[in-house]
């Protein structure tokens, strides 16, 4: 090409047969070369791509071409875009060679740039338009595998670069309910930030998914996860002690991490433990919420046993609490005081799981019962009337009420009685 003040000139002379001649003078101006538009390349964001531009030396001698890269779209590149290469290329006579252009973008979008190869001595040049479409980025890392017992926290830290000369603020997006991420985190300019998230599963099993952090300046960063939730350790053991015919009640506490309101269904492996069918749990605090419920041990057989109680929710998970219980033979009760010619009711409960016929008797004939036997339904109480006839000698009289069942020889419930002729 030529500059506007310089023209190319040439002349042409024709010798005619009659001895005359004709001469022609030519003048020409070369226009700048047209921009060569290269095909659109689709590249995942946050990856490095190399574009090779084939350059041909139009001269029969070696020349050095300076390289200039100018943005077309957008009009100005920020640090989130990288389109770069060497500052020059040397070409031998009529040589063809590839110029390597390194391309990357942190965010999705379409980018175009003009790449000019110019001989600084002659001013001649050739220019190309490169076009890139940055698509959704690939995951930033290989799949991270996290494993934890249910309700236990496992932490993991990811690194995220910020090449911009300003601070950027990231927000998280996670469709994995057991992943706990901060709402936002900041990365200082020209640095790499670290962000820690937690895995706290509530339900046993495996899950896979991707969490994403995003900022308008740098786009999205994707992190694939493979998650495994394992069975938790048992809750602390709870011990119960009661004699046959009596009961013991204790308050049991667990810590719920349910992320929404739910009901835990309560079940026991032994019918000797009585409790509510369920306990309501609110949406838990970040460090969990304490739930309490009462369990009553009402034994039906003598000895030491191990069992457990479980709490289950579709969203809150499962808890298993080991129970150790010991039942001793019936312990005497009383004394129950009576005065002459009166009766008092004494309540007795059938703690067994079926209807049982109990027999009632007193050791001293001065004390009477209104019934000798009674079939009492399971878990129901019966009120027996016990009377005192009085003592002819006016002395204080003691006795026992004995309650038995025929199929349990050697086992009896005893209640001490005390009778007096005087007003008690």
UniProtKB/TrEMBL annotation:
GO terms for cellular component: axoneme. This is Abnormal spindle-like microcephaly-associated protein ASH domain-containing protein. One of its GO terms (biological process) is cilium movement. Gene3D superfamilies: Immunoglobulins (2.60.40.10).
């Amino acid at each position: 090409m030529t500059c506007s003040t310089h023209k190319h000139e040439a002349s042409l002379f024709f010798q005619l047969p009659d001895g005359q001649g004709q001469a022609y003078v030519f003048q020409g101006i070369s226009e700048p070369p047209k921009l060569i538009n290269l095909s659109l390349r689709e590249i995942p964001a946050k990856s490095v791509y190399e574009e090779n531009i084939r350059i041909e030396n139009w001269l029969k001698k070696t020349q050095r071409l300076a390289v200039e890269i100018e943005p077309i779209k957008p009009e100005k590149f920020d640090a989130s875009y990288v389109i770069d290469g060497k500052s020059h290329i040397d070409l031998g006579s009529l040589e063809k060679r590839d110029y390597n252009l390194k391309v990357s973008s942190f965010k999705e979008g379409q980018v175009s740039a003009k790449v000019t190869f110019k001989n600084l001595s002659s001013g001649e040049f050739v220019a190309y338009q490169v076009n890139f479409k940055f698509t959704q980025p690939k995951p930033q890392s290989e799949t991270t595998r996290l494993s934890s017992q249910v309700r236990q926290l496992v932490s993991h830290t990811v690194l995220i670069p910020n090449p911009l000369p300003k601070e950027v603020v990231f927000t998280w997006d996670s469709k994995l309910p057991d992943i706990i991420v901060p709402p936002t985190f900041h990365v200082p300019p020209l640095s790499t930030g670290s962000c820690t998230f937690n895995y706290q599963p509530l339900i046993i099993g495996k899950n896979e998914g991707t969490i994403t952090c995003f900022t308008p300046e740098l786009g999205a960063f994707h992190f694939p996860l493979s998650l495994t939730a394992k069975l938790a350790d048992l809750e602390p053991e709870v011990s119960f002690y009661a004699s046959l015919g009596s009961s013991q009640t204790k308050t049991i506490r667990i810590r719920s991490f349910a992320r929404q309101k739910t009901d835990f269904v309560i079940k026991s492996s032994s019918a000797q433990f009585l409790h509510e069918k369920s306990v309501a749990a609110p949406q838990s605090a970040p460090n969990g919420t304490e739930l309490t419920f009462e369990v009553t041990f009402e034994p039906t057989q003598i000895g030491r046993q191990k069992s457990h109680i479980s709490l289950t929710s579709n969203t809150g998970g499962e808890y298993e609490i080991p129970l150790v219980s010991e039942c001793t033979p019936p312990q005497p009760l009383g004394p129950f005081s009576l005065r002459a010619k009166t009766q008092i009711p004494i309540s007795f409960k059938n703690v067994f799981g079926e209807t049982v016929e109990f027999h009632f008797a007193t050791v001293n004939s001065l004390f009477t019962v209104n019934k000798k036997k009674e079939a009492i339904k399971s878990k129901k109480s019966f009120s027996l009337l016990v009377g005192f006839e009085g003592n002819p000698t006016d002395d204080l009289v003691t006795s026992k009420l004995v309650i038995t069942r025929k199929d349990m020889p050697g086992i009896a419930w005893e209640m001490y009685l005390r009778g007096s002729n005087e007003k008690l």
